[in-house]
Design a protein that fits this description.
alpha+beta; 6 helices; about 30% strand
Length: about 250
Amino acid sequence: MHIGPAVGTAPTTEETPPYEPLPSDDELIRWAAGERDTARVFRRGAAVAVAAPGLSMRDRLVVAGPPADAIPLVRDVAGEVGRGYRPFGDRGLVDALVHADPALRPTPGFGWMHRTGSPAVPPDGRARWLPPAAAPAVTALLDSAFPDSFAYPGRPGSADRWAGVTAEDGHTPLAVAALAWCAPTVGLLAGVATSPAARGRGLGRQVCAFVLAEALAAYGTAALVVDDDNTAALRLYRSLGLAYRPLRAASYR
């Protein structure tokens, strides 16, 4: 499908047919494309954009490539899929999109933290996958410790399988994390929370080490999103061997 100018006047924006190899090895693009049955992949020149509905609770337009190609690509794709999709990508690229389009409003910066290969810190055995019956207790912990979490048990597109470190009763979670909105080659860690009464004991580190090891084994790449002002989380994730990549999102006014 061509949604740009006619061939011969300018490069066109093309939608990648289903199951055609992705025109990018960028892990953000691979994550957004997911199973490819709901996401739509577009390209123009060296730029790629993925319109991914409901990706971590937002309709996102994940974009990568040089601004010269990405700016007209995002303009054309937004006209095709609607301006409810939020541009999302490397911070410098999204800044260029915002500069080129006064209708875009940027968010504060945040980070994509990622790792491939083997875990830097092996789990110590205290964390495990929780049974489905633990969902109400996980919800209660998130309500008290991280109510802004996008990942919640039973939430559409989120994870129904959670890991945790439990109290001595073996049932009450003290720290939790999940794999949510995963793609075939990228496992996304989300919903990391520790009960306020259990903080300072390294439980969050252990549940993260466990889920990261599971993600690396299952997907090859493990990643998460973290706010730039969350210095404690940034320090924790760096200690677990994750590298930081500065991102930004934007929304249409």
